[in-house]
Each structure stands twice: as C-alpha cells, then as structure tokens.
Amino acid sequence: MKFQIAIDGPSGAGKSTVAKALAARLGIVYVDTGALYRTVGYYVRTQGADPHSAREVEALLPHIRLELRYENGAQQVYLNGEPMGDRIRTPEMSMYASAVSAIPAVRAFLLETQRAIAREHSVVMDGRDIGTVILPDADVKIYLTASDECRARRRYEELRAKGMEVDYESVLSDMRERDRNDSSRAVAPAVAAKDAIVFDNSGMQPEECVSGLMTVISKLIRV
Ligand code: DC
Questions:
Q1: In the chain, what are the domains?
Q2: Which of 71, 142, 163, 208 is buried most, with the most CB atoms less than 10 Å from its CB?
Q3: Are 93 and 42 in contact (CB under 8 A)?
Q4: DSSP letter string, 184-223
Q5: Ligand 1 — pocket residues by CB below 6 A?
Q6: 45-67 tens-digit pLDDT
Q7: Which atom of ligand 1 approaches the CA of 185 most closely?
C-alpha cells in the first residue's frame, strides 16, 4: 500500500535533512519540492528575466522541461536535460525561488510533477504547501519549525560547509525576508495545514528530531 508523508515548514527548519532520513528509514522516495522552484528561478535568472514579473516568468514556462531522477539515492533535478546539482543552492537562487514561487502560473506548472510522483511511489515530500495543496489527503502531515536564530545558524553552517562566503547576520535577514514572502503570498501561502502536527525542533540534533517524528508517524500509519 502506498502512503504519503507531507513535511512543510519555513526555511532552515531542517526539513530536507529530516525528510531524507525518514525516507531512508522507511525505504520510500524523498521528494524535495523546493528544488523545483529553485530550478525555475535558475532558468529565469539565465534568461535575464525579472523573477517578480508574472508576465515575464509566465512567458518562459513553455521553454522549461523538468525531470526528477534519483541517482545514488539522491534526487537530481534536470532542466532541459541538464542536471542542476548545487547551482540551485546559492542564497541568490533562494531569493529567485521565493520570488517565482509567488506566481500562480509557476505553482500550477509544478503541481502535476509533484502529484505524479506521489501517485507512483510512497513518498516523504517536503515543501511549503504539501499538506495544504499538493497532497491534501496525505496520511501524515508535519509542520516542522524552529526559532529564527536556530534556523539561520543551520543555514549559515550549511552554506559555509559548501565553501560559500556568507555572514550570519545576512543569512538571518535573508531568511526572515524569504519567510515573509513565502507566508504572505496570495496563492498557497506557507502555513501549517489545519490537520498538521506542529513539531518545533529548536535545539534538537537531527537524530533526535527524526526519532521523535518516527514515533509520531508510527502512530498514524503502519510502517
Ligand atoms: O525549501 P527551499 O528553501 O529549497 O525552497 C525554496 C523556495 O521555494 C522557498 O522560498 C519557497 C518556495 N517553495 C514553495 O513555495 N513551495 C514549495 N513546496 C517548496 C518551496
């Protein structure tokens, strides 16, 4: 039997780390939906278009072909046949992704890609609107969050570990700006679904968070 686990929450809450670990433990597919918005943002950037302009971005959508592949257990997004890798992980691409994600046509464009994977496989899917829009009937809905400072510290360390020159204060202010954009947009704002379990992992190590969530999940579905 297939099942769906939706994990939503603000940036830096540890969604991808935790969702990846849960998927590995459960032996199911992990889907990082933020990577799809980042890839659209990346394409908009390469075309020199304004990511805030619905008109400019919409005109580019017919030229975008996205594919999700799983290579050595990791998700890879292909844009028109080309693997994106870490190019979509920079702070600039975070901002582009957040801007294009507020455009209704972009959300509509990515909707079916996300639902199609969940139809074919049991999934742990992370994003902002998985429990509210993409998989409203998900078996488990988790809203993962943590304090602003804690989330910014994690993002900062992640970017530094990738060799990027960033400072903590700008990571914190970029993150707050992105949270504001994501939660105040008119379409599919990043909010907890009414039936989501809110889990605050401030100060927790990933392992502690994963085992806490495994307990929650095993009460809701037979895994
Ligand atoms: O999870 P992330 O940081 O990779 O997401 C990048 C941006 O994409 C984020 O600022 C909001 C947007 N996003 C979204 O609107 N809906 C999703 N399901 C996933 C991401």
A1: 4-217 (3.40.50.300)
A2: 142
A3: yes
A4: H-SSS-S---TTPEEEE-TT--HHHHHHHHHHHHHHHS--
A5: 11, 33-34, 37-38, 94, 97-98, 101, 127-129, 178, 182
A6: 999 999 999 999 999 999 999 99
A7: 15
